[in-house]
Design a protein that fits this description.
Blueprint lengths: L1 H16 L20 H6 L20 E5 L4 H12 L3 E6 L6 H10 L5 E5 L5 H7 L9 E4 L6 H6 L1 H21 L4 E7 L22 H19 L4 E7 L1 E3 L21 H10 L5 E4 L11 E2 L1 E3 H13 L8 E5 L5 E2 H12 L5 E4 L15 H7 L8 H8 L1
Parallel strand pairs: 1-2, 1-4, 2-3, 4-5, 5-6, 6-11, 7-10, 8-13
Antiparallel strand pairs: 9-12
């Protein structure tokens, strides 16, 4: 047994030192896109940092932040803003939903010694542990964005959602406990509320999720709360945000939805696909809801406003035990029909819009936020309130 262990340990040492991109060899339930490979990444100049090799952050920086899902839509915008504010940032992503282009862009933006990009999977405890090691700066805060996030897909593949969202959050909490990282900002969702009896939604609104996406997020919240209850030094903040859209106005990073998941995607991506001729029409699912025009109503918040809410939690130390909870939205609802008309004006394209009577599986009629609490306690309010301007940023 001792001999076998020695050989295994030596084998792992060789594997961890012979290739800076060794992590590309490990795969999990959520595979990286078939078009992506370590060789292509190396040839294209995307240098992922080996988490088992010492990374030295430059001196004179703010706190060291780990951002999970930093290659995704929201995560990449958050990394960009954190870098601009002087934080040292490590990000981990397995590219199951994120994209390599975001890492390209962030590497160009980041000053030397400020940004560490790790290819890793939160479903792999070794990957999670490695993110917290081998740097000259201890991790101070974790911003946890990494998650798959399509309501319709969650109904078709529920176990994938419980694994990716709930289980992976537990893995992250274990690693934080091991490395004594005591501050977490968790990216949750209004889907935890489900169909509500009264609008707007406040933080005290009962949580009755009606789809696996909302349930898996709520279970992850509960894991965070239970861990906080058992560890009084641990503090967290949970942000339940509504429908995110928009993009960096300067175009440095943006959103690139996976084409094969378009049937589950957000309306903004579907609208742009129709405007670009990628699809023949924009289909709005469900026009018999009990709303003003029969289509669902959502609260659309600009991605930079959402990121700013997370950063304000860190800047104002609004972590708590039990964890603090904030809704993040504009406080105003926009129907899908109104969205489609705005999209036509922004893109200046004659988009064919069709409607189906049957609702999307697991969908709810209307949600929009009451944001009094986050305004009162953090001084946060949405800055990008002109809907068409925000949509134009994404276009």
């Amino acid at each position: 047994i001792i001999l076998m262990f020695s050989v295994f340990r030596k084998y792992m040492q060789v594997r961890s030192s012979d290739d800076e991109c060794v992590h590309f060899e490990r795969k999990s339930e959520l595979q990286i896109p078939s078009t992506f490979s370590a060789t292509r990444a190396q040839r294209s100049g995307v240098l992922f940092d080996n988490p088992r090799v010492q990374f030295t952050f430059a001196k004179g920086r703010n706190s060291h932040v780990v951002v999970t899902g930093g290659a995704g839509f929201i995560g990449s915008h958050c990394v960009m803003q954190l870098l601009e504010l002087g934080y040292a940032v490590s990000t981990v992503d397995n590219f199951s939903r994120g994209n390599v282009g975001a890492i390209h862009a962030l590497k160009r933006i980041a000053p030397k010694g400020r940004f560490r990009a790790v290819f890793g999977d939160l479903g792999d405890p070794y990957d999670v542990d490695a993110v917290f090691r081998h740097t000259n700066l201890k991790v101070d805060i974790v911003f946890h964005f990494a998650a798959i996030a399509y309501v319709g897909e969650s109904v078709v593949h529920p176990l994938q959602y419980y694994s990716n969202i709930t289980s992976n959050t537990v893995h992250l909490l274990r690693a934080m406990h091991q490395h004594r990282v005591k501050k977490l900002i968790y990216s949750s969702t209004c889907a935890t509320y489900g169909n509500v009896e009264k609008l707007p939604i406040t933080e005290s609104t009962l949580t009755r999720p009606i789809n696996p996406y909302g349930k898996s997020k709520l279970y992850a919240e509960n894991a965070i709360r239970d861990y906080a209850s058992s560890n009084k030094e641990f503090k967290a903040s949970i942000l339940r945000y509504f429908n995110v859209f928009g993009s960096d106005p300067e175009g440095r990073v943006g959103e690139l939805p996976r084409a094969e998941l378009s049937e589950y995607g957000r309306i903004s991506g579907a609208c742009f696909d129709a405007a670009l001729g990628i699809s023949d029409e924009l289909t709005i699912i469900g026009n018999a809801h009990p709303t003003k025009d029969g289509t669902t109503i959502r609260d659309f918040v600009h991605v930079l406003d959402l990121v700013q809410a997370h950063i304000l939690v860190a800047q104002k130390e609004k972590y708590e035990n039990p964890p603090s909870l904030y809704n993040v939205g504009t406080g105003h609802g926009v129907s899908m029909k109104e969205f489609a008309e705005a999209c036509k004006r922004v893109t200046e394209k004659e988009i064919v819009v069709t409607y189906t009577a049957a609702p999307r599986p697991g969908d709810y009629a209307a949600v929009y936020a009451n944001v009094d609490k986050i305004n009162r306690e953090l001084g946060w309010r949405a800055n990008y309130t002109d809907f068409e301007t925000s949509l134009r940023h994404a276009w």
